[in-house]
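Most newcomers find our protein records easier to grasp once they have seen one. To make this concrete, we reproduce a full record directly below:

===
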Amino acid sequence: MKIYCSGIGGIGLSAYAALQRTNGHDVLGSDRSDSALLDDLRSQGITVILKQDGSGVPADVDLFVYSEAIPEDAPERARARDLGIPERSYPEAVSELTKDHRLIAVCGTHGKSSTTAMITRLLLETGHDPTVIIGTKCKELNGRNWRRGKSDLFVLEACEYRRSFLNYSPDILLLTNCDGDHFDYYSSMEDYESAFVEIAKKLPKDGVVITHGRDPSCVAVSKASGRRMIDADSFPALTLQTPGAHMQENAKLALALADFLKIPKADAERAASSFAGTWRRMEVKGETTAGVTVLDDYAHHPKEIRATVAAIRGAYPKRRLICVFQPHTHDRTLKLYDDFLPSFRDADLLVVTNVYDARSQIEKGIVDLPKFLKDIERESGVHTINGETLMHTEKLLQSGILKAGDVLLFMGAGDITNLATKMVAR
């Protein structure tokens, strides 16, 4: 087939495109701006254009696949309809790839990428050969976010946004947590939890939900689904290369999966213990010339932030910790406003940038950033600075704030990662 991917630079759709290329299909696509992911796709023989006005969609395309970020009225989707090209959303297209496999789906509010990466390492280290699609880049996948395996196992990071994971029919479901997010789509916490119940109900009668027995929300989801639950919290804590209690929880999920797949305990524990993290998950980027250690993390939900900051504080207990946070969408910041306020308590200094407005077309309010900073300072007890734009934040950091020996942690799901990279280069 000839497959056109609109939004091909997305972390999910880029993996789908690469997999389909290895399956022998002619793949091309578009995105708004260049990136390392697009460079990697080009190196695999995939044509990428940086315009999305519809003119790049050829008439002889057999399948048009679009990222969830591409709206229905986008020029490329309109062009595909005019040409009569069959359309699939990213999760619909991936679902077709998984049909002949035993699907292990990893879902939850947060921790999905780290858990998926850890079980990928575990399966590879113990002689399994899974196909993988993950929402981050991994050392185990040669710095990529996918692999094509030869076994019947397919490991998939399954996102709940807009209930997109209901396109999948898993055989095994790993549920990391169910804390609530994406309230621009979900009407309530009950609505949010119901989506996880729905995907768990899609398991076959002999399917299992692997989750945390100490988490009431996870237990409630599992019970409501009527499927067997395996309690990951019954498995031992390991000595890990990655810091933080949340990584211990992820490791327990991996061990529970290994036990269910009858992988020897010692082999599973050795593989999980050797996991060294992934791209943008407490990733150590390096040091500045001034002797500041720079880390980059995807955390953008209050619980993720709290866990990440606590983990980094534990890893560097005697060093000053400076956090730079870029809020992701006005809607999430407003809906979870009170939860954000105490999340930075383990930091010594916090710089907050302007909100990354990823969904401007559906935002219903605007965050009062100066007030947000004052409220964080009151609740967290940490001195807070308004970083405004990334350019202004960069100037602030270079103005004498940083000292040799500091730990500089960047957090957010937007383009804050670019600043982390720039700081190391100096």
Summary: The chain has three domains: 2-94, 99-273, 283-425. The longest helix spans residues 245-260.
